[in-house]
Known about the structure:
The chain is mostly helical and 81 residues long. Helices cover 49% and strands 10% of the residues.
Amino acid sequence: MLQGEQLRxxxxxxxxxxxxxxxxxxxxxxxxxxxxxxxxxxxGPIRGINTKLDAVVKVLEAAGVxxxxxDAPGARLRKAG
Length: 81
């Protein structure tokens, strides 16, 4: 499950604004800037509409972000190549 901390970190790694992430995710499923801000403000697992969260995760992963969901959830960029 996506956590607020992961979403903040992933967006920061890509240097995307809230608006950029919302626009990219909205190509799959409508996602508002306000929703992203709300989700990022969450400590721990994000509760929301699964299709919208899935769209955000797909866009982040397509851009090269790996979401880590072990005992210490986080985000990192995949190695190039």
